[in-house]
């Protein structure tokens, strides 16, 4: 899962970044409205966490622009603007949910996951292949009815692949899932995590398409 965080408060931003990293989420963090619009124009995200009171361009303008372009990326507004009128305004201009500061990080994470599941088709379908069952909503992985524990990075690779079964994802696309456009990429990271997935899910589960990338088969 790849999230854009738009937040100018360094303490709040760092806490969210740490919490989401522990959830196996790739997070790109920008601190003003202009940078937010540039990021949204250049890339796609599973959800946006958007503070309204940001410099450069107000968060409401960023949200209006996003919806005006026909972009339906889920947006969770996180803001100190806590009057009923302000909340209604945020929802009316296209926010999918609204969380008032200060908030609990567990609630933020739960709401974010709910928005992403809804956007993926009112809960992404469970992936089943032979004796492997993967539930994206709960992040539960079963092999022959036994639970398999994945690292957060392994899950990020797996989540990207099962979201588009039959589609080939390049190494660059998977690296972006792990590190975002601002992270330092380890040269053999994808191979390491794919190897880990194959050990846990079977040698043939992740298919290498020579010269193109990786895929999982359609169910």
Automatic annotation (TrEMBL):
Location of the OmpR/PhoB-type domain: 124-218
Positions where 4-aspartylphosphate occurs in the chain: 51
A single Gene Ontology CC term: protein-DNA complex
GO function terms (MF aspect): phosphorelay response regulator activity; transcription cis-regulatory region binding
Lineage top rank: taxon: Bacteria
PANTHER family tied to this protein: REGULATOR OF RPOS, TRANSCRIPTIONAL REGULATORY PROTEIN TCTD
Protein name: Regulator
Source species: Noviherbaspirillum autotrophicum
